Amino acid sequence: MARILGYIATSLDGYIATVNDSLDWLFAYEKMDLGEHDYREFVKGIRTVVMGRGTYDFLEQDESAWAYCDQRVYVVTSRPIDHPKGSLETRSDIDGLIDELRALDDGPVWMLGGGQLQMAFIERGALDEIEIYMLPELLGGGRPLFPATGFRSSPKLIGAKALDRGCVRLHYSFD
Asked: Are the C-beta atoms of residues 8 and 138 closer than 8 Å to each other?
C-alpha cells in the first residue's frame, strides 16, 4: 500500500502563494541549503505525483521541461487537458483516486502543490505525512496553506528542525 505524502513550503503567516498567485517570494530561497531535506532529494524517492488543476496550469505555463518524466502523474480535474505538457492521467473522483493510489505498491505518492487538494485528502484520512517548510516571510494574504473547511485534526509531530536562512522544517504524521 502506497504512502501518501505532502511536501510544501509556506510563509510564516501561512500562505503558499501571494494574492496574485506568485511564487517569487519562494523562488528567492532556491539556493537555500536544505541538506537531506532538499526537494531534489525528496522527489528522487517519489514514484507517483498527484496535483490539482491549478498546480498543473501553473507548471504548464513554465517554459522549462516537464519535471516529472520519471514519475506517474495524476491531475485532479473535471476539465480535459487537450495538450498535456508531460505524460499524465486525469481523475475527477477523489475517492476513486485515493483507492487507486492506495493500491499502488511501487513507492510513495506525493501531493504536489496547493493546500486545497491536500486538505481534501486530509479530510478523507488519506494523507499519511506532511513536511512543511516554513520560510521567514510575511505575505499578508494569498493562497492559504490549508483552506478553511471546518475540518479539525491533531496531527502528530514527528520532528522540527531549523535549517538554512531561517527556514524551519515541520514534519507531521496523520496516522
From this structure: no
Report the distance separating Cα 17 and Cα 86, nearest Å.
Answer: 24
C-alpha to C-alpha distance for 2 and 4, rounded to whole angstroms = 6
| Number of compact structural domains in the chain | 1
pLDDT at 175: 79
Instruction: Give the SS3 label for residue 23.
Output: coil
Please write the tens of the pLDDT for every residue from 98-143: 999 999 999 999 999 888 999 999 999 999 999 999 999 999 999 9
- Whole-prediction pTM value? 0.95
Question: 34: closest CA among 59, 5, 7?
Answer: 7
Q: What is the CATH number of the domain that holds 113?
A: 3.40.430.10
Host domain of residue 135: 4-173
What's the helix, strand, coil split of the chain in %, to 5? 25, 30, 45
Are 16 and 147 in contact, with CB atoms under 8 Å apart? no
Q: At what angle do helices 115-123 and 94-102 cross, to 10 degrees?
A: 70
Residue 89's contacts (CB-CB under 8 Å, 6 or more residues apart) are 72, 73, 74, 75
